[in-house]
Write a structure and sequence with these properties.
The protein has 343 residues and is mostly helical. It is built from eleven helices and five strands; from the N terminus they run H-H-H-H-H-H-H-E-H-E-E-E-H-H-E-H. Helices cover 67% and strands 7% of the residues. It has a three-stranded antiparallel beta sheet. The two termini are 20 Å apart.
Length: 343
């Protein structure tokens, strides 16, 4: 049985091995380049360096951020692609061509046939994705230490354990879709689109509520505003995005209230827009310059819901466990379907 599955799967396995070899070479190059940049950063801003730390950090970040984000996005697509090209055709092609009947007329039960297929292909997908995730985690380690954005949606899903769970879930999802649709191309399309949608849904809807967040109030000074990433939103309103907590720079801020005045009321939109569009000229520097000084003069604060950086490992374990449980549940559904309805 194992030999038969290897014969059917060897083309995909060899393609995956070749892709892994090429990716390994590139990730090793990126890792060395990031470490060279990190050493240059430390020489300017390390212990006793006495350099301009903010400028050195910004230069180090801008030199490597886009590359690492691109690699994280690529790794996020790997499980979806494996689910579509390895998982979905695995059963759908057999049912479409009718070759499953030959196996079932031998001594192999339907349950064993499906379980062996899922285990064989799933293990290969987990090994391939896990190897890429391990290499990317190593390559990005100095960058993550400096930038402290491990909870970012792309970064979190491309580091440590979570990609292993993604791969296992994607293959089982693709297998079930192929079993239900019984047509290879539609099953591949549904798997690819469905799993990518799931990867957007989970970090934005489920992840923030896996653990109850802590709350705090952050006074909004000009320095705080200049350390943020954005002011205002698509729908307007006195909002600020990309804040960091001074006492916990590696924390994940799950929710930030609108800018609020000392009495707890939301800052009036007209006053916010006045500071944004036509602030008094003070010659202040920083990202938002005069706007930051103008807003800080209103004695503002924001209420923040956040997760300390120490919870990173907890979230990684929880998400991976959830993906594995979901994968097991999808496999169980597939076994029930194949025993009762597939002929």
């Amino acid at each position: 049985m194992i030999w038969l599955h290897w014969r059917q799967f060897r083309g995909q396995a060899l393609a995956g091995a070749l892709a892994l070899i090429l990716a390994t070479g590139y990730l090793l190059y990126v890792g060395v380049d990031v470490r060279d940049g990190y050493e240059a950063y430390r020489s300017r801003c390390g212990d006793g360096g006495g350099g301009d730390c903010a400028r050195a950090r910004s230069q180090f970040r801008s030199a490597h951020e886009n590359t690492l984000l691109f690699l994280a996005a690529g790794l996020a697509l790997v499980p979806a692609v494996l689910g579509a090209f390895w998982g979905a055709p695995m059963v759908a092609r057999e049912l479409e061509n009718g070759t499953h009947r030959l196996v079932w007329n031998q001594s192999v039960t339907r349950t064993r046939w499906l379980l062996t297929k899922v285990a064989f292909v799933g293990a290969a997908a987990v090994l391939l994705t896990g190897a890429l995730a391990t290499l990317l985690t190593w390559a990005a380690a100095p960058f993550d230490e400096v930038v402290q954005n491990r909870f970012g949606a792309l970064e979190f899903g491309a580091r440590h354990l979570v990609p292993f769970g993604h791969a296992a879930l994607a293959v089982t999802f693709g297998t079930l879709v192929g079993l239900l649709l019984r047509r290879t191309l539609p099953a591949m399309a549904v798997t690819l689109v469905g799993f990518v949608a799931f990867q957007f849904f989970f970090p934005n809807v489920v992840r923030p509520v896996l653990v109850a967040p802590e709350t705090t109030t952050l006074r909004v000074t000009a320095e705080t505003i200049n350390g943020a990433r954005s002011l205002g939103g698509i729908g307007g309103g006195p909002v600020i995005g990309g804040l960091r907590l001074p006492d916990a720079p590696d924390a994940w801020i799950a929710e930030t209230s609108p800018l609020r005045t000392a009495d707890g009321a939301d800052l009036d939109g007209a006053r916010f827009n006045d500071c944004l569009d036509d602030p008094p000229r003070t010659g202040a520097g920083g990202t938002f310059g005069d706007t930051a000084v103008c807003l800080a003069g209103h004695d503002l604060h924001v209420d923040v819901r956040y997760h300390p950086g120490s919870r990173y490992g907890t979230f990684q374990l929880l998400e991976t466990a959830i993906y594995l449980v979901l994968g097991a549940a999808l496999t169980a559904l597939g076994l029930g379907r194949i025993r009762r309805r597939v002929s």
